[in-house]
Write a structure and sequence with these properties.
This protein has 123 residues and is mainly β. It has one domain: Sandwich (Jelly Rolls). It is built from no helices and 12 strands. The chain has strands spanning 11-13, 18-21, 32-39, 49-50, 54-60, 62-67, 70-75, 79-82, 88-91, 96-103, 107-109, 117-118. The strands form 3 sheets. Strands 1-2-3-10-5-8 form a 6-stranded antiparallel β-sheet, with no helix packed on it. A 3-stranded antiparallel β-sheet has the order 4-11-12, with no helix packed on it. The protein is globular. The two termini are 18 Å apart.
């Protein structure tokens, strides 16, 4: 059993969101990664695709998630399952937080860009 406490060295801040790693392979998980996402009101993440299914549970506020051209408002207490390899984007019309779970080997890609990249908060 591993008990994980969030710490500053496991936080990744981008212009759109702050991701805090929880369960990851580098912190003792063998198969899954979990993290929290915090977005300020008006923030919009980049369009991207992830190679693995993700499960997002909004814990505060509301997120507008667009996946494969369909947009849904996901308010606190609701969960959205995002299939792998589909272009998605998150927008926070108000400050929002979510808990995300995914297999730990997921990779990100950006439409029109070559290659993939790892999600550092999921490793």
């Amino acid at each position: 059993m591993h008990v994980i406490t969030p710490s500053p060295e496991n936080v990744t801040a981008s212009p759109n969101a702050t991701m805090t790693a929880l369960a990851t392979p580098s912190r003792g998980s063998a198969e899954l990664s979990t993290w929290t996402v915090a977005m300020e009101a008006g923030s919009t993440g980049p369009e991207h695709a992830i190679s693995r299914e993700q499960v997002w549970t909004v814990t505060a506020g509301t997120l507008e998630i667009t996946c494969a051209g369909r947009t849904e408002k996901i308010s606190a207490g609701r969960t959205v399952i995002l299939p792998p390899d589909l272009v998605r984007q998150a927008h926070a019309p108000q400050a929002a937080q979510a808990h995300v779970a995914m297999r730990c080997d997921g990779l990100a890609s950006v439409p029109g860009a070559e290659g993939t990249r790892v999600l550092p908060w999921a490793r």
